[in-house]
Amino acid sequence: MRVFIPAFLVAAVSLAWVAPASASVTVVDDVKRTITLPAPARRIVSVAPHVTEMLFAAGAGSQVVGVTEFSDFPPEAKRIPSVGNGVTLDLERILALKPDLVVGWNNGNAALQLAKLESLGVPVYKSEPYDYAAIALSMERLAHLAGTDMMGKKAADTFRHRLGQLQETYQKRRKVRVFYQIWRTPLMTLNGAHMVSAALRTCGGENVFAGLSQLAPTVSIEAVIKADPEAIIASSGEQDDVLAAWRRFPGMAAVKRGNLLLIDGELLNRSGPRILDGTEALCKQLDAVRKKS
C-alpha cells in the first residue's frame, strides 16, 4: 500500500516530538516492545475503541486528539475527530493531528499502516490485552505515557478490586456449559484464550469450544448440537433475532430450557474497563440459567 504523505506534515510531526530528555517516559507494550517518549504525550491518537475507553479511564481523555469511528464511549469520544474505522486508517489525517503517541491494535490492514507511521518516526504503542490483568496493566502503562499516573493507578486498582469481588461471588458456582456465538454465517465462536472465555470462567461458566486452537474458529451446527450446551449466548444489537435458528432444535438443552441469551457485545467483546460491566451482566444471566436446571 502506497500512501502519499506531504513532506510538511512529516516535518511538523517530527518537531512536535522534541522535548527535554530528562522528562522521558518508558513502558513495555502488549507485544513486549519498549516504548520511550521524550516527555509525557500531550497529543494522542487512539485507533481502537477499547483503547479510547482505557485512555479516558486512565485520565488521559483530554489528550486524545483522534479516534476511530466506532469509539463511542465515553460520550465525549464522539466529538473527537475520526482518523478511520480501525481497519483502514487515514494516515494523512493522523499526521496532520501532530500526535506524539499513537495507540493501536495490531490487526489486519491497520497493522501495516501502524508500521508506516513508525517508519515516519511516530511512537506507536500496540494494545492487545487478552486477559483482565493486561487491561489493568494497560491503563497504568498508558497513564504513565500520558503523565496521568495517579489516575491510571486508581482506575487499575478499582478494576482489580471489582474483578476480585466478581470472582469471589460467582467463580465457584455450578458450571454452566456455554456456546458463545459471534457470527451466524459462517457460524463462529471464540476459543479459551479470548477475553470472553475469561469472563465465562469468572462467572462459573465453561466454553464448550475452549479447546480449539484458533482464537475465533468456525464451527458446524452439528458440532454445537453434539456439544449440547446448557446456554447459547450471542451479542445484542442486530436488527433480527440472531438466535432464532437454534429453535429448530428443541432437543438441545439450551433450547428446551429457554436459555438463548443476548449480551451487550460492546461491553463484553471490547477489552477495556467496561468489560467488567459485561462480565457482571453475564454472571447474572448464568445464575438465571442455574435456577432453571
Automatic annotation (TrEMBL):
CDD domains: BtuF. InterPro entries: ABC_Transporter_SBP, ABC_transptr_periplasmic_BD, Vit_B12_bind_prot. PROSITE patterns: FE_B12_PBP (PS50983). Residues 1-23 form the signal peptide. This is Cobalamin-binding protein. Keywords: Signal. It comes from Noviherbaspirillum saxi. GO terms for biological process: cellular response to iron ion.
